[in-house]
Write a structure and sequence with these properties.
The complex is a heterodimer of chains A (187) and B (311). Chain A has helices at 2-20, 27-47, 51-75, 91-111, 125-134, 138-159, 164-168. With 187 residues, chain A is an all-alpha fold. Chain B has a two-stranded parallel sheet with strand order 1-2. In chain B, α1 (14-39) crosses α9 (218-243) and α5 runs parallel beside α11 (281-310). The longest helix of chain B is centred in the middle third of the chain and has 32 residues, at 128-159. Chain B is globular. Chain B starts with 6 loop residues before the first strand and ends with a helix. The chains are: A mainly alpha (187), B mainly alpha (311). The interface between A and B is medium-sized, with 26 and 34 residues.
């Protein structure tokens, strides 16, 4: 009963905070409205007794939103941080697409013949989850990790306008490197 | 895994946990004031927390133009509440408020929320200096958080559990601090990080007129400052089940040992403030990612190898 009420209250908070993202007129409020929405979803996952997944959702999303707020404020051309702004654009297309997707997903959820539950939840859910992700699919995980890191590094290398030749000179022998911003180690 | 590593106490005991946390924070403020007074060649300082609280409670609230009051208050109040959430999973001897099976992740999730809270306090005032402070804190966060996460993993790997009580119970005979010194040091650096303390105080420093708390006044300033000290105390207390054997120790009962160890760690952290220089966010980035993160990963590898081969 209590869990049921909590679930629906959190669901309401999640949807309302998600809608608030498009209603509020400040970049910081929009970002943290989204964070509140994610936290509510994370708490719902906690209610489903998936403690690890719930807490990781909250952890990752709050971290992400904290960083995203900085970039949103920094990069948005009209400087919406300092003057009222509107999060929406391309309204007709966006409303059409979102209503369509909602009807599709909600219809699917209502009309699909849901399978009945087979077996019970394992004793230690976190342990079972770890085995599920890292057991049989270890090879996939071991490959995906380095590929993701390589992608990030390659992306940064391609995006940065300074190369190693700018840092270390044409023969790569300049020490210490010529950096616009000094690091914390050895210089 | 021992079955009864911890006993869950009724929720009403949360009041006692809160009182203990406030007591530890009070001690931290007083100790810092005493050390400050001594550095200036005068005595006293033990009643400073009371006089400071009284002064801030009487102060009139300062207002700024076009402040985002909602976000500003959320940040301050969140700092105050966050530390209480953190101590909920710390076992006091054999008692705990919540025997969460993923207590270590809980701790981590709460400390990440501080990223948002400190930045919100910096943002809400609509003041340049406090916003600069908020950015400084996030830059520090990017540098300390990942090493902290990997440092938290080491005791969990060794104990084979993410529950704080079981991590403490797994240290019978040999405390984790002995064979995970790197993880312990990085953990303490992380604690100072999310408390905006010591080397991580540039977000609050005088060169930007007080940074995040530049425009904070009266009760807002009180709860923000109290929250910082309580986070410092909660972080110090969490090092006890993670690295310092929980309630293990001769003569005294378990709960007393937890408090003694937490006080000792807290004392060191407070003392360190005037021994370690401020870490510039841009420079600390390289220390965090170039030294601390590899050290934490190597520490995790060593622990994993010992666990796999040593049984």
């Amino acid at each position: 009963m209590v869990i049921g009420i909590a679930f629906w209250v959190l669901a309401g908070v999640a949807v309302a905070a998600g809608a608030a993202v498009f209603v509020v007129d400040s970049m910081a409020r929009a970002t943290y409205a989204l964070a509140v929405s994610f936290i509510a979803v994370g708490l719902q996952i906690l209610l489903l007794q998936q403690s690890y997944l719930g807490l990781i959702t909250i952890l990752m999303m709050v971290m992400e939103m904290a960083v995203m707020a900085v970039y949103m404020v920094m990069f948005m051309g009209m400087n919406p941080a300092l003057m009222p702004m509107d999060m929406t654009h391309g309204k007709k297309t966006a409303i059409g697409a979102s209503v369509g997707v909602f009807v599709l997903l909600a219809g699917g959820a209502l009309l699909i013949p849901w399978p009945t539950r087979r077996g019970g939840p394992p004793e230690d859910l976190t342990h079972a989850l770890g085995l599920e992700i890292m057991g049989e699919k270890m090879l996939v995980m071991a490959v995906v990790g380095p590929v993701m890191v390589a992608t990030i590094v390659a992306g940064v290398v391609l995006a940065a306008h300074r190369t190693r030749y700018d840092r270390l000179g044409d023969d790569l022998r300049r020490r210490p490197a010529d950096d616009p911003q000094s690091g914390g180690v050895g210089r | 895994m021992p079955e009864d590593a911890v006993v869950v106490v009724p929720a009403v005991w949360a009041v006692l946990a809160g009182v203990i946390l406030c007591g530890l924070a009070f001690f931290a403020v007083a100790l810092d004031a005493v050390l400050s007074a001594r550095a200036q060649g005068v005595g006293g300082g033990w009643v400073t927390p009371l006089s400071r609280t009284a002064r801030l409670l009487r102060q009139r609230r300062r207002k700024t133009v076009a402040a985002d009051t909602l976000l500003w208050r959320v940040g301050g109040v969140g700092m105050f509440i966050g530390a209480f959430l953190m101590v909920a999973v710390i076992p006091l001897g054999k008692w705990t408020l919540a025997d969460l099976d993923v207590g270590v992740v809980w701790f981590n999730a709460v400390d990440v929320v501080v990223w948002a809270l400190v930045w919100l306090v910096g943002w809400g005032a609509n003041s340049t200096h406090s916003l600069v402070g908020g950015y400084r804190f996030l830059a520090h966060g990017v540098a300390y958080e990942l090493p902290l996460m990997f440092a938290l993993a080491a005791p969990a790997i060794a104990a084979g559990s993410l529950a704080a009580g079981e991590v403490a119970a797994a240290q019978e005979g040999l405390w984790f601090v002995v064979w995970m010194p790197a993880a312990f040091v990085i953990f303490l650096i992380g604690v100072m990080g999310f408390s905006v303390w010591g080397p991580f105080a540039p977000a609050l420093s005088a060169d930007i007129a007080g940074g995040v708390r530049a425009e904070l006044s009266a009760v807002d300033r009180l709860i923000f400052q109290a929250g910082r000290y309580m986070f410092l105390a909660a972080g110090a207390a969490f090092s006890v089940p993670l690295f310092l054997g929980g309630g293990a120790g001769p003569w005294l009962p378990g709960w007393a040992w937890v408090l003694v160890k937490a006080l000792a760690v807290l004392t060191v952290l407070v003392w360190l403030r005037r021994k370690v220089p401020l870490a510039r966010p841009d420079r600390f980035m390289e220390i965090g990612w170039g030294i601390l993160l590899p050290a934490a990963v190597v520490q995790d590898l060593v622990v994993s190898l010992i666990v796999v081969w040593g049984g």
